[in-house]
Amino acid sequence: MPELPSAGEPLRLLDGTLVYPGGEIDDGGSRVSPAGFVEIPTHREAQRVITATRRKLADLPEVPRTMNAISVVLSYTLFGLDDEEIAIATGLSVEQIGRLKVGEAFTQMHEAIVRTIVDSETDVVRDILAKNARNAASTMVEALNAGNRSDRMAAARDILDRSGHRPADIVEHRHRVDGGLVIEYIRRGSEDLPPVIDMERGI
User: pLDDT tens-digit profile of 115-169?
Assistant: First the structure.
């Protein structure tokens, strides 16, 4: 049984391998950096991700029966299938698929999924920038103290901007309201109702 180390000390395994608090491994030869390890998010980061993605049935833009068809068509669309192939896969007509795609529920679901993907990628980029912010700031200060005059001026301008000393922006706002309230009454027939997919029927 390996002896538990004190805080900050490496863990010594039975074969003599040392595992340091940062994850580096010393097997008696050279210390190996844990390049293949997967970084686990902190408790707060995990809670933020779960809270941002957790939804309820009440959040759906349509009733679940209709959303089943919308979700299937949306999944195939994001996968890259065209309407004809989606029609073959779902049993819906091309016209029904076209009406689904121009509907508000399809648009809302598409935007929500794309926004979730973009936010996830943005978080990754933000983490990379945060980890390298110190090096970037040091490089900017080095450019301020070295290089030619144009490099020093550019570094000085960037440092002033990022430290809250940028010049005030002047924005001109112009507003114009034309027309009035327009109410459009649309009568829908049975052919305009959103299609559904029978999820219980075997394929």
Answer: 888 877 777 788 888 888 888 888 888 888 887 888 888 888 888 887 777 777 6
Say how many C-beta atoms besides its own lie within 10 A of residue 57's C-beta: 8
Distance CA 111, CA 114 (A): 5
pLDDT band, very low/low/confident/very high, at 203 (cuts 50, 70, 90)? very low
Q: What distance in Å separates the CA atoms of residue 176 and residue 164, rounded to the nearest whole number? A: 34
**Which among 70, 84, 83 has a CA at the least distance from the CA of 112?**
70
Residue 180: predicted pLDDT: 64
Instruction: Report pTM.
Output: 0.41
Handedness of CA 107, 112, 117, 123 (dihedral sign): positive
Q: Do 62 and 54 meet the contact criterion of CB atoms below 8 Å apart?
A: no
27-50 per-residue burial string, b: 16 or more CB within 10 A, e: under 16: eeeeeeeeeeeeeeeeeeeeeeee
Our CA angle for 153, 155, 158, nearest 5°, is 110
